[in-house]
């Protein structure tokens, strides 16, 4: 009995328990957040197939280890380095997308948003909103294909650079003219920043979303693609059907009317209330992004 009491005194006393500091709690929270997000990412991408493959390989390796199958183990170890590089190459698009999403994270973006030019006044004037809506539906009526990307918080500079600079005030006439068939500027996308048409003929990244309807061509895929990696609003006018669709946060809303488009543009207008949020470095928190 005495031995048992001594055991409890020696080993289950408060002194023998590891000390938990505040930093340990912080570490646990960070790790929980990271592991949860990695699991969600793995489930949402092709990486899930990779994980299943890795589990099969792990079982094989365990089997070979238990039975001491030296040749199989030797092959495993020799292939390990090449395998890691192969995985990085094959899953490069997924890794890229994950890093881009991390960069868009609500915690990170405000820290590194150096662009304070939009801190003053509204993003769009009433005329700009009305002209975008007017041009869109006139183009739709004439079944003229169009792709208009409206910038929100995240810069579209990298796509702007692929096109021809315009830097002109938005007007319905200008937009209609740009997308007119057989004119030098009609191909590609127009980028709108505030009240100005920044550039035309811009090339956008195509979405690789496999769940998109097969009837959607590259114009729609490009519109959705740019909305997956930035917080822009993309207006797509189908040349084939004359219907207007919107892409936001990687989702496509098809066949919208003028009021819906106007409200969506106005929703970009409302900037995040900077003064109510923690402003760490000349930055501003993003408005909530729309999902399906
Ligand atoms: N990556 C891209 N970036 C910008 N614009 C693009 C891109 N790919 C295609 N486009 C535009 O889309 C046009 C081709 O549209 P396509 O017919 O393939 O698309 P769609 O989605 O079926 O649209 P529509 O209903 O208008 O036919 C091109 O002429 C070009 O203007």
From TrEMBL:
Probably a homodimer. Keywords: ATP-binding, Cell membrane, Membrane, Nucleotide-binding, Nucleotidyltransferase, Transferase, Transmembrane, Transmembrane helix. GO terms for biological process: cAMP biosynthetic process. GO terms for molecular function: adenylate cyclase activity; ATP binding; diadenylate cyclase activity. Residues 92-258 form the DAC domain. Belongs to the adenylate cyclase family. DacA/CdaA subfamily. Coiled coil: none annotated. The keyword Glycoprotein does not apply. It is an enzyme of class 2 (transferase). Its EC number is 2.7.7.85. The chain crosses the membrane at residues 20-42, 49-66. This is Diadenylate cyclase. The lineage of its organism: Bacteria, Bacillati, Bacillota, Clostridia, Lachnospirales. Catalyzes the condensation of 2 ATP molecules into cyclic di-AMP (c-di-AMP), a second messenger used to regulate differing processes in different bacteria.
